[in-house]
Amino acid sequence: MSWEVVIGLEVHCQINTDTKAFCGCSTAFGAEPNTQTCPVCLGMPGQLPVLNALAVDKTILTGLAIDAQINLESKFDRKNYFYPDLPKGYQISQFTIPLVEHGHIDITTKGRGDRRIGITRIHMEEDAGKSMHEGLDAVSHIDLNRSGIPLMEIVSEPDMRSSDEAIAYLKNLHQLIRFLGVSGADMEKGQFRCDANISVRRPGEPFGTRTEMKNMNSFRFIKQAIDYEVMRQIEVIEDGGKVIQESRLWDSVKNESRSMRGKEEANDYRYFPEPDLPPLRVSQERVDAIKAGMPELPHQLRERFEKEFGLSAYDADVLTQTRELSNWYEALVAAHPADPKRCANWMANELLGRLKELNKDIEHSPVSPEAFGKLMDRMGDNTISGKIAKDVLDAMIESGKDADTIIEEKGLKQVTDTGSIDAMIQEILDANQGQVEAYRGGKDKLFGFFVGQVMKASKGKANPAVVNQRLKELLKG
Ligand code: ADP
Ligand code: MG
Ligand code: ZN
Q1: How many angstroms does the Cα of residue 196 sit away from the middle of ligand 2?
Q2: Over the stretch 126-185, which tens digit does the pLDDT of each residue have?
Q3: Closest Cα partner for 355 from 397, 403, 401?
Q4: Which of 51, 160, 248, 371 is most buried, most CB within 10 Å of its CB?
Q5: What rounded mean pLDDT belongs to the chain?
Q6: Domain boundaries, the chain
Q7: Half-sphere exposure in the Cβ direction for 293 (13 Å, CA)
Q8: What number does CATH give the domain 418-474?
Q9: Which ligand ends up closest to the CA of 233?
Q10: CA-CA distance, 27 to 19, in Å (whole number)?
Q11: What does the pLDDT read at residue 410?
């Protein structure tokens, strides 16, 4: 009998504000350790937190984008635990009444098609500092620049049934958050981190005991960690054992997980209402105003691209992965409005492929949308063929010159006049009398051979449509 996998995800996402959640310290990344701190985020006794309104607005915007309920009154709670990078001895979080509840994200995977994944809640909390051990002998250092940076914790329902669904959910959430501009969500900087709760069961049975893989910040590792953990749990159960509820750490070097702490040692956070902050009340007017300022969401943009520009679902998806990509595409269409589909095709397949090899984002493309539009123009007016255009694009990227200059300098203009094409064809036919006989005798397949020869003789510059048409004529004999 087969096993069913059950996954629920908790995502910690840094809210991009200039200042921290409860004090005025800078949130800028990469500063010298402990240069962005004050008595509040250092946890000095007697200091009072003041809530960052922008962090609240961005959490509300996120809630609205996932169709969730915004609680007009929520509250903050203290989550007590001791850890060296947590100077107060507690984290300010939201426990009993979060700001956002009951949302969802839609995903599509090959396995189960379209699925709606429930989001239980989004609550606000503050980040802890960072312990540093690397390169240190027998001591640890602590950097409290991160202490007090505002986070959203986005908790899903246990609605995912495979690592593929988990990754699809995370990618959609990541994309949504970037479109909303509520977080840089840079995974390498730890701005988007995931805890994966995983269990297995026989189909139809109640949920099994879950384990939690903590703090992963790469889609690839998350998938590996889930697949590993699923296998491990199945083995434990099939060997007659029991899965223990525990937190585990993924070791991306050894490709295995190990136990962090078991349930017996599980923290009892002794939550209680945060006495230094009043309940968080937001007005319906404020929520409405945030809703009115909602930017275009990824699925809306995708649908618009399909409708407005006639793109395939695939191209629309590729070109809306980031706002930077979609903006570039729209600038390209503005530069070359004649053929949005060709633009999409060439951008998705030719330009992005080359940028990937160069390890460059679209923002750092050496070719501008206007210059790329010119290249599209030259294909559109038959100055060059698609094949030559690829060479021109290579040269544009390499030299920074524009398409017209390269076409001129390299003499790449397409030959379309039938006079010169007929002459080329005649030469090929004369040189290949045997094949001509065979073709005329019924070996139709040889037609491709002649096309190839003529194109080669013209160094790719002959217009393929004219070559085809003239060859048919002249081969009749
Ligand atoms: P905690 O506070 O201990 O992290 P929660 O009840 O908030 O516990 O659940 C955390 C996450 O675990 C949620 O994303 C939820 O969907 C997921 N989850 C709960 N039960 C299971 C289960 N049996 N298998 C997999 N995931 C689960
Ligand atoms: Mg948890
Ligand atoms: Zn501070």
Answers
A1: 8
A2: 999 999 888 888 899 999 999 999 999 999 999 999 999 999 999 999 999 999 999 999
A3: 397
A4: 160
A5: 93
A6: 4-286, 296-410, 418-474
A7: 13
A8: 1.10.10.410
A9: 1
A10: 5
A11: 84
Of all atoms in ligand 1, which is nearest to the CA of residue 158?
A: 16
Q: Is the dihedral of CA 439, 442, 443, 449 positive or negative?
A: positive
- Using CA atoms, how far residue 253 sits from 20, 194, 216, 222, in Å, is 33, 18, 13, 13
Q: How many residues appear in the chain?
A: 477
Q: Which residues line ligand 1 (CB under 6 A)?
A: 6-10, 155-158, 197-199, 207, 210
Backbone angle region of 382, left / alpha / beta, with phi > 0 → left and psi within -120 to 50 → alpha: left
Beta strand pairing call for 77-80 and 130-132: unpaired
**Locate tokens 């090899």: which residue?**
357
Q: Which atom of ligand 1 is nearest to the CA of 9?
A: 14
276 pLDDT more than 70 = yes
What pLDDT was estimated at residue 373? 95
In degrees and rounded to multiples of 5, residue 257 shows phi and psi of -110, 155
Q: By the 8 A CB rule, do 376 and 346 touch?
A: yes
